[in-house]
Amino acid sequence: MTTTIAPPAPAAPPRRRRARAPDSAGWVTYGILLAIVVFSIFPLYWSIVVSSRDQSAIGRYPPPLVPGGSLWDNLSAAFEQGNFGLALTNSVLVAGTITVAVVFTSTLAGFAFAKLSFRGRNGLFTAVVATMLVPTQLAIIPLYIMVTQWFGWANDLRGVIVPALVSAFGVFFMRQYLVSAMPTELLEAGRVDGASTLRIYWSVVLPVARPGAAVLGLLTFITYWNDLFWPLILLNTQNPTVQVAIANTASGIEVDYSLVLAGTVIATFPMLIVFLLLGRQIIGGIMQGAVKG
Length: 293
Fold this sequence. Notes:
With 293 residues, the chain is mainly α. 67% of the residues lie in helices and 0% in strands.
């Protein structure tokens, strides 16, 4: 009598664990985000509400929360009384020129400090960074004497533009960006191909530095579009920037806050347009540069 031994049953395949879906944001998260958005947008909305009504709306209780019908009239009055047409042109010229100059000089100097070897590099970079520790207010009096008496630029946009053409923060920012985002192998490949330093800067460094340069350009444009301190000292009511025009509208014994806030709306919307047009591109460029780095 023979006994047959049945073959062992095949082992069951291991059960795969289902990938756990990432936790979705709950209603608490959305509620907090919504509260932050409302809290951030409300000052701009309140400016639009007051600028669309007469002077009495600013002290009314309860305050009005719906825009009125005088927005275009107040905007027209702000353009006529506050010289906002010229002010917008001057602000675009000042902020745009400074932005282009700062981005160019900062990428050039940042590349030199990040990837070029020369004597005294670390000491010179330390001196550049140390200038950021000096408060702007300390340099106002000597700067005013130089601009008005030496160069004769009183009430001249050149006096606002020229002192800001180079930025220590921009040099520091681009140096730190290029240290991590710029592979040294690309520079060595360019030198092997016989490219000069300027050629490497133009053809190799600038494409890599574009995301950081876009962020620096946006920050610089916002800074000098909103700058009030130095233009208010140097310029007068006949040749203002947009922030000086707002300050002039708010000066006097009786202040018409509907016109002041109408000027604020005029000064704010160009920045919103810049963010709407360039915000997504800048964020995409930053992410692309991070992946390449």
